[in-house]
Design brief:
Two copies of one chain form a homodimer. Chain A has 381 residues and is an alpha/beta fold. Chain A has two domains: 7-28 and 276-380, Aspartate Aminotransferase, domain 1 (Alpha-Beta Complex); 53-270, Type I PLP-dependent aspartate aminotransferase-like (Major domain) (Aspartate Aminotransferase, domain 2, 3-Layer(aba) Sandwich), CATH 3.40.640. In chain A, 43% of the residues lie in helices and 15% in strands. Chain A contains twelve helices and 14 strands. In chain A, the strands form three sheets. In chain A, strands 2-9-8-7-6-3-4-5 form an eight-stranded mixed β-sheet, sandwiched between helices. In chain A, strands 10-11-14-13 form a four-stranded antiparallel β-sheet, covered by helices on one side. In chain A, strand 6, helix 7 (174-187) and strand 7 form a beta-alpha-beta unit. Chain A is globular, with a radius of gyration of 20 Å.
Chain lengths: 381, 381
Amino acid sequence: MAALRSSAIRDLLAVASQPDVIGLAGGLPDPNLVPVERIRNAVDAALGVPAALQYTETTGVARLREVVAARESARCRRPVDASQVVVTHGSQQALSLLAQALVDPGATVVIEEPAYTGVLQVLRSSEARIVTVPLDTDGMRVDVLADLLASGERPVLVHTVSTFHNPRGVTLSADRRRALAELAERYGFLVVEDDPYGELYHTTAPPESVAVQSNRVIRLSSASKTLAPALRVGWLVADPKVCTAVELLKQGADLCGSQLTHLVAADLLADESWFAAHLAGLRAEYGSRAGALREAVDRELAGAAVLGRIDGGMFGWLEFVDDTDTDALLSAALAEGVAFVPGSAFAVDGGQRHSARLCFTTNTPDRLRDAVARLAAAHSR
Amino acid sequence: MAALRSSAIRDLLAVASQPDVIGLAGGLPDPNLVPVERIRNAVDAALGVPAALQYTETTGVARLREVVAARESARCRRPVDASQVVVTHGSQQALSLLAQALVDPGATVVIEEPAYTGVLQVLRSSEARIVTVPLDTDGMRVDVLADLLASGERPVLVHTVSTFHNPRGVTLSADRRRALAELAERYGFLVVEDDPYGELYHTTAPPESVAVQSNRVIRLSSASKTLAPALRVGWLVADPKVCTAVELLKQGADLCGSQLTHLVAADLLADESWFAAHLAGLRAEYGSRAGALREAVDRELAGAAVLGRIDGGMFGWLEFVDDTDTDALLSAALAEGVAFVPGSAFAVDGGQRHSARLCFTTNTPDRLRDAVARLAAAHSR
């Protein structure tokens, strides 16, 4: 959904919404796995009180902040108070308000490359000076960040999609999380740990949050990937000073969120046994889809491309080893009836021309196998 | 809900949420008049399609844009296409995104004084140069604006709450609407006609929209006052170029609104006979409340204060003619069990010390009479 860098790619993908095109380009949960009936019940319960449709606090409905604080306390392995939580209109709004609160024009911000396009857009609006650090199979190259800091770079923020990276699929290793936290303490920057996918692991939980190691970490997460995007419930966890700054900006930005959807999210997140079973279902289903994607790529594109490791989240990162230009491949792929996002869409300074982001969450294993066959046909042309 | 200028007043009013205090300070619809059952039915219908809980277009659900375009066509007396509508997270978000799109730091923006605090906050964030024009009983003093323009002021935007002003209660007369449109054409500024209350007239519809007279008018409105704030559905109507700029900014701000609440709003707004009856009910009930407030003020505060004319909306403007300082009165009033917002909260450059904004929508006539009796008791202390 976030802005793609190349409007040419955006125009191409606009064509991709035709029903005969298998879409691997999105970044969406499968609507058939959204708990519609549980949400219907929660809406019914919430509407028992007329105030459910009234304005609410700018920082979010108190009950939701408490439920999130309890979950984030487990994530951070320390007590997180509700006053340290601001509920935002998806975690994209948290990014946007944080940039407004913390990033002056010209300030240096470090992001990962390939980049989550939503953070790029926000930082460009803030007129930040963007410095990139590459990713490898263990996530952000924290050693490269250390070199940048040693050479004098002084970022105000370092942004990382620490777990099941968008678009790269990788997860920051435990050692690098510790190293990143140490650098934040030593150099005084804030880490924005953008973590919408962490709950969507397939078999093994990811390493502990970077926030376990340091108080200089602002965590962002969301109900969009685990419950439903239309709740528009994301959140940030930060110290009360940052929360107050974000609250004032949110007041000007949109007054407040929807009390109704906040109450629904609170109901579902607080229903621990139901939510655990729901997550278990998502993990199993998305895990089997990722497995189907891997098998198909290994079979159909052997020798031409390698699919990166997938342990959770929504994306696999396909790297062509035969010099295929994925911008060019996209046109051929659309003609064969499959869409993906070429790596160049996530490049900050160009590059990423031989890679592609494949979303595996919105199609069944059979459709995914079909999609990869179409991709292989496009590639062989 | 918007930021009050004085944190002292905000702190005082935080105390005012106690149940024994009658609240005239808010700016809320009465939750008991929100059509809860109709909304419950609309949610049920929307949830019949799983995609109702998915992400949606940044500019809003297509069906809602079409319904709004049809209503706004009637308002503007010309065909408004859905491509000229962006659905925002309440009309506050429309204000905020417009300011980002159109107001560079240092640019001149004209607003009315006393001011809607939400616009003040947004313009201060944009580092606009704010120039004020006073209001009288016929709304904005467009003659004063004309003098400012003649003397060389070149605003990029002129913001007006044209109908049932917040906080001042007044409505811009038909003559002044024409004059304002002519000035916009002559000097090339844009008018932002902020119109969340226009449907809430008591007996007589307000004059035609300023947009009838000029294409240089961006209209803002909202479902928050007529349906429910928790839908978080507002909108702007502007030319496609402005809409595209706002869309790009909204993508960075929060990706998109809630498909679910957009579908609900579209359902209710498109159900014309139901909506007409619903509005008729609100007009009658709010009209009777405004009448009760007027009678009580005329009786209890005769000689001390005058309540401005109220033809609709949510607010009456009380002006003390006996030098009462309403900041000081607020403390006494809270002690008597009634809350209001003193005029100083809406002042841009100080002043408005002898006036108060009274919200009449959230209390029954009996409670309003009781509230004014308490206010009179506080005044007589």
